[in-house]
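Methods — Computational structure assignment.
A single polypeptide chain was analysed. Its primary sequence is given first, followed by the predicted tertiary structure written as structure tokens.
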Amino acid sequence: MVASSTACTDTADREGQVVLADGTTATSRVTSVSGTQIPTDRTITTDGQVVYTGGTYLLPWTDGEPRLYHWNPDGGTSTWHLTDQWASQTSLTAYRLTDTGRVDPVTVPVVDGAVTLTAEAGSAYVLYPTSELPTPVDPEWGQETAVNNPGFFSTDLSGWNTHGNASVEITDRGNAQAVLGEGKSSISQQLRDPENPAANLPAGTYSAWAWVEVEPGQTRRVTVTASGPGARGLDGTGKPVSASIDSSTALNATASDEKHRTYFQRVRVVFRSTGKPVHLTIAADKGSAPVRVDDVRVVPFTPADDPAPTAGTILFEDFEHVDTGYGPFVTGSGNAGGDARTQLAERHEPYSQSGWYGINQSGAVVPGGKLTDNVLRGDWSLMANEENNGLILRATSATLPLQPGHRYRLTMDHQTAFADTYSVVIGSDTVAAPPQEQERERIPLPQARETERFTHEFVVPADGTVPWIGIVKTGGGRQANLTIDDLRVEDLGRVR
């Protein structure tokens, strides 16, 4: 494509033209566009030279280092007359832009104030004066975190120690993620001080996790482990702290998540560091099912303060110091189609508590109309606010591992604005492609506008399915809200 260099001489008042303060002029015959349309039928000139036409451009950029950006959606060759700022250059250096930086430098001569560029379809380019080429900057993936290259944006496993068949793939969404292939494979690294990468992870309590997906429909044990001379369990023991899954059956239903509608979920360990070396390992046992890993994180953490611990407690959550998400819950499949309305609610009296202004069933805001508390105890609770119908929250085999043939007791405090709007669900997944989610029990929550304690016992069947607990929304209406707190699950032992 050859771009015209004719200067725009129309007035700023002419229909179909916009003139900016610096004299840049945009001209188009298009009078309206839809909200999903990307209009390219326009011409933009700067200093009397065309910088954009028909979706192809060579745009001067003045923020920071002087440079030009080039895009040709169909690829091919185009000729551009440079603006006054650039026409005096003798040559420019063009780089193709990639996810990992500038590559493939090509020197482009400036002839009579013009350049001819050849572009690949779907690739963007940046051009600099050949006499003023910038020094490449190390992106320092994971800078000021405890993990080097935590999201694999380097498109390789730099920063990680590898064993077996480990690599990085680029997804159809353009995201880089690690893959543990056939055979016993792992990636690991020593954790570091975020403020001083040459030093060990400082003493303290930490939550560490990776987002993991075992190929749907297949099984393979994957374990996340914190180990080394500096790793301690919360009970003070020095043995490695680990968490494992065998399959990925919980749909990622968070609409804003890059992993939306995959089966990636968090696998987390909580440990104490003494200040000596701590190693984080993500390992897959022998097997052929691909295991995908992404977004490794390590953050300081405060465990829940259990006011009444029991010998059988395997999970207690007071929602006071959740590291991310909803604590032991993930977004349920009923919310896969849009944004959830569940939140970690913070106490802000009197506005967050019952008795404040609220919306009645006619839609009117009335004094004293707020029916339930957003927070039941402490400063934080988990609240579902007029949620969508369907499964809104569920645990996974990583957040709540349940053993076949065992009896469990589930207790939680709750306020529920109306009866027949929310139920507790005991469910299980069948390992298949795609996984099959099923309810085994549904226990309706009664209306409770003062805090009540819910208790239910259940037995996990030994049928090869993956068990979970969850919350389902069954009815609507204004202020059809549910708040929960002090969630506890106890293992009562094997059923004889």
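Note: The domain at 17-132 is CATH 2.60.40.1180 (Immunoglobulin-like).
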